[in-house]
Design a protein that fits this description.
The chain has 139 residues and is mostly helical. 78% of the residues lie in helices and 0% in strands.
Length: 139
């Protein structure tokens, strides 16, 4: 009978057993490392969620703060805007009154002829006349 040490099947089984032990040990260390990483990542997720809640609260507060200030600015600016608009209306009314006075003067000078009033207009450029030859006195 041959010795067990000379049998190749025993050596193959021995090598397979040693490889299996190393594979199990490596899988176990990898599993331990992955569990540690998983725990750390869960802690990171919890801290990020806490920070997100803080930022949402801060954002909600910051979003309501400018609205209150904007309303205060509107209340302050509204009377100033009204005063400016009243001043502009008064200026435009004075300009319109001056234009009406000018038109009244032109109507008294040239009469109420709408065709002649449409043709008679001031010169376009200084020093040039753009008047029809029929009415040289209208320019």
């Amino acid at each position: 009978m041959t010795s067990l040490f000379e049998d190749p099947l025993v050596w193959i089984l021995l090598v397979a057993l040693i490889a299996a032990v190393f594979a199990v040990m490596r899988a176990r260390s990898t599993n331990i490392q992955l569990r540690a990483d998983n725990g750390r990542l869960h802690g990171d997720v919890a801290s990020v969620r806490g920070r997100l809640a803080e930022l949402r609260t801060s954002y909600a507060w910051a979003g309501s703060w400018p609205a209150a200030d904007l309303e205060a600015v509107r209340r302050v600016a509204e009377p100033a805007t009204k005063a400016t608009l009243k001043s502009a209306v008064a200026t435009l009314a004075a300009l319109a009154e001056g234009q009406l006075a000018l038109l009244d003067g032109l109507q008294q000078k040239y009469g109420d002829d709408s065709a002649r009033a449409a043709i008679c207009r001031p010169p376009r450029l200084p020093g040039t006349r753009d008047c029809p030859s029929a009415w040289p006195d209208c320019c």
